[in-house]
């Protein structure tokens, strides 16, 4: 192992049990010996040099390229040691802090997410084969944080609970129109239509997701009530009773937060309610992981609440409720990682070994960031008027319970009574 890398790791790893074997076969131990052991083998001098100068990007790249193997502890163990040593006199005392600081300073240049660039960014990730996502997602293909009401829930149960939790916060009534911004594979929109007898328009920039969602709507006989469009939300002109957006705001980019909420304000009716579900930071604003930005979510950005709130306030919208979901995504990613590992050979048949190693690192590093770094989920409920929603949160739990009973087959009718203005055989309503 070269002397400079040894010095870097000596300063970085104060706690934990990390063994590193270099290209020439020598092994050095770092940390205080506590915790589960982790053993990395850096196989080439090229990888050794790269890791020395930019570990947060070079470690995953070297792993993807087969120039680094993790012999013990897995990717999760490597990231646990890295994150648990941040701020403890290790990484903050090295030049690596300066590299990450520069990435933060230039984050706006990396997030000029115009409509055309947003479409290209989405294609890089969400237009991967649907067969890949079926290997590790739940049956409904929910590609966002699940909601573990009980710690022993299965992934499918927790994803169903997530849909109930979101639906309850929307305070839906039959006959209303709902806009789903970033509608994914259509599961949430289809659920809302069936549970509440509402009309849903979903928009996505992913051709793959749009095709799957549309096919699902037809297969379930809901094509007259649930309609998915391959369109940027900025192109919409209709108005809706409700707006929901799950796992899409991370792709908006800090430069476009004001545009997102200004547009949402114009799309929402005067008595409307919006629910935004997004990954966020519990700490201060910081740069997107270099690995995630380069290989997984180009143009993506995880905001701090201090960056989101000013944009909402300036749009004239009213924040009515904020809930922070902690560790729910860590457990979701744990399930995804286990499912991917069980189906790794199938994923390799779709793509290749390098892709599988990239995806393994992505899932494990993301889980680590939710367990040991500052990533959380924001659920922000928004309205146009201060008196649109009840004064207490009791209605959320009541609606969730009613939906759970319905999902179990004990309730045939929607849990919310029909709006007096509801009409049968509806189509989506045009702008007022």
UniProtKB/TrEMBL annotation:
- Give the signal sequence positions: none
Gene3D superfamilies linked to this entry: Vaccinia Virus protein VP39
Recall the GO molecular function terms of this protein's record. Answer: methyltransferase activity
Give residue spans, biased composition: Low complexity. 414-423
Broad enzyme group: transferase
Keywords assigned: Lipid metabolism, Methyltransferase, S-adenosyl-L-methionine, Transferase
Task: Tell me which Gene Ontology terms the entry assigns under biological process.
Answer: methylation
Entries under SUPFAM superfamilies matching the protein: S-adenosyl-L-methionine-dependent methyltransferases
EC number(s) in its UniProt entry?
Answer: 2.1.1.-
Key word Ligase present: no
The UniProt entry's sequence similarity note says:
Belongs to the CFA/CMAS family.
Protein name according to UniProt: Class I SAM-dependent methyltransferase
Organism placement in taxonomy: Bacteria, Pseudomonadati, Pseudomonadota, Alphaproteobacteria, Hyphomicrobiales
């Amino acid at each position: 192992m070269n002397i400079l890398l040894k010095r870097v790791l000596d300063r970085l790893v104060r706690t934990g049990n990390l063994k590193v074997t270099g290209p020439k076969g020598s092994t050095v131990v770092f940390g205080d010996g506590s915790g589960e052991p982790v053993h990395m083998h850096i196989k080439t001098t090229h990888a050794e040099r790269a890791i020395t100068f930019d570990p947060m990007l070079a470690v995953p790249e070297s792993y993807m390229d087969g120039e680094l193997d993790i012999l013990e502890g897995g990717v999760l163990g490597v990231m646990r040691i890295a994150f648990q040593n941040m701020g403890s006199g290790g990484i903050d005392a090295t030049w690596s802090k300066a590299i990450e600081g520069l990435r933060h300073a230039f984050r706006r240049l990396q997030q000029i997410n115009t409509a055309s660039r947003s479409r290209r960014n989405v294609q890089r990730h969400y237009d991967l084969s649907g067969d890949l996502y079926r290997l590790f997602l739940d049956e409904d293909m929910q590609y966002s944080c699940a909601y573990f009401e009980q710690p022993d829930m299965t992934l499918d149960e927790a994803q169903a609970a997530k849909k109930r939790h979101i639906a309850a916060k929307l305070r839906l009534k039959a006959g209303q129109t709902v806009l789903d911004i970033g509608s994914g594979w259509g599961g949430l929109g289809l659920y809302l239509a069936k549970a509440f007898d509402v009309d849903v328009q979903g928009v996505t920039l992913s051709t793959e997701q749009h095709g799957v969602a549309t096919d699902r709507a037809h297969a379930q006989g809901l094509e007259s009530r649930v309609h998915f469009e391959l369109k940027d939300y900025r192109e919409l002109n209709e108005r809706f009773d409700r707006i929901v957006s799950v796992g899409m705001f991370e792709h908006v980019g800090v430069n476009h937060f004001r545009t997102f909420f200004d547009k949402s304000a114009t799309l929402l009716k005067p008595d409307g309610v919006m629910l935004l579900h997004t990954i966020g930071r519990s700490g201060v604003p910081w740069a997107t992981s270099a690995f995630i930005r380069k290989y997984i979510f180009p143009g993506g950005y995880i905001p701090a609440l201090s960056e989101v709130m000013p944009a909402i306030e300036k749009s004239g919208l009213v924040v009515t409720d904020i809930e922070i979901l902690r560790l729910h995504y860590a457990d979701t990613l744990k399930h995804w990682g286990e499912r991917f590992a069980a189906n790794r050979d199938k994923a390799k048949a779709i793509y290749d070994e390098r892709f599988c190693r990239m995806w393994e690192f992505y899932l494990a590093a993301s889980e680590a960031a939710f367990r040991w770094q500052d990533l959380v989920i924001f659920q922000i409920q928004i309205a146009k008027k201060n008196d649109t929603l009840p004064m207490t949160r009791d209605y959320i739990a009541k609606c969730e319970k009613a939906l759970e009973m319905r999902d179990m087959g004990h309730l045939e009718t929607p849990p919310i009574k029909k709006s007096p203005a509801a009409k049968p055989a509806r189509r989506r309503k045009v702008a007022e």
